[in-house]
């Protein structure tokens, strides 16, 4: 099954390599990984989607905490977080495309149905931008293919996630933000046996 982790890490060279290497050593496949600046200086936010058994989630979170550059780790699901993905799709829409000169108007109609935006219009192609759930994006791609449109390129960011409402306070507290009420996070990264978690010094040996 898919698990989504949001990790706040120090913005330093090599952090991304350490995280990717950690998953490699755990033999767990990363489905998508997005990273960028957070609301706090010198801190980046990672959204990691991986495929693993249910019992592996605790082990993954504990191992991420063992990295010295990790500030906070949280596993989220759709009921408690807003999850979105951005996708760019370039579709052939010139006179030589399967639908000929009617391609453009038909692609425009599909874009309206799926609430996508046209962000580039060229003599031979149309580029669509769509933000939403993975299933919604996959739905548009499927309809385009089943309608015999030629998809020239697809670029997807992967999932981005943020907890709803009061859940935010846990992350802000971890970063030392003033004015945030105390909350309880009972997760103990040392609760697992030693053979279930990667050693603390793991990241120090990665390039």
Automatic annotation (TrEMBL):
Residues 187-198 have a biased composition (Acidic residues). The keyword Hydrolase does not apply. Residues 4-81 form the ACT domain. Residues 179-207 are annotated as: Disordered. Pathway: Amino-acid biosynthesis; L-isoleucine biosynthesis; L-isoleucine from 2-oxobutanoate: step 1/4; Amino-acid biosynthesis; L-valine biosynthesis; L-valine from pyruvate: step 1/4. It is an enzyme of class 2 (transferase). The keyword Transferase applies. One of its GO terms (biological process) is isoleucine biosynthetic process. Transmembrane segments: none annotated. Keywords: Amino-acid biosynthesis, Branched-chain amino acid biosynthesis, Transferase. One of its GO terms (cellular component) is cytosol. One of its GO terms (molecular function) is acetolactate synthase activity. Its EC number is 2.2.1.6. It catalyses: 2 pyruvate + H(+) = (2S)-2-acetolactate + CO2. Belongs to the acetolactate synthase small subunit family. Dimer of large and small chains. This is acetolactate synthase. It comes from Granulicella mallensis.
């Amino acid at each position: 099954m898919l698990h989504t982790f949001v990790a706040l890490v120090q913005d330093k060279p090599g952090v991304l390599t350490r995280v990717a290497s950690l998953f490699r050593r755990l033999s767990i496949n990363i489905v998508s990984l997005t990273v960028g600046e957070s609301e706090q200086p010198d801190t980046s936010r990672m959204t990691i989607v991986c495929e693993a058994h249910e019992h592996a989630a605790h082990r993954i979170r504990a191992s991420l905490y063992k990295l010295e550059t990790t500030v906070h780790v949280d596993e989220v699901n759709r009921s408690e977080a807003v999850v979105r993905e951005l996708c760019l799709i370039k579709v052939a829409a010139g006179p030589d495309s399967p639908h000929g000169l009617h391609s453009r108007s038909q692609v425009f109609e599909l874009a309206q149905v799926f609430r996508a935006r046209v962000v580039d219009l060229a003599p031979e192609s149309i580029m669509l931008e769509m933000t939403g759930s993975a299933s919604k994006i996959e739905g548009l791609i499927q309809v385009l293919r089943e309608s015999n449109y030629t998809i020239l390129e697809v670029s997807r960011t992967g999932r981005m996630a943020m907890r709803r409402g009061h859940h935010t306070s846990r992350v802000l507290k971890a970063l030392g933000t003033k004015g945030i009420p105390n909350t309880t996070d009972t997760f103990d990264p040392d609760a697992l046996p030693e053979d279930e978690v990667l050693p603390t010094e793991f990241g120090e040996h990665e390039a």
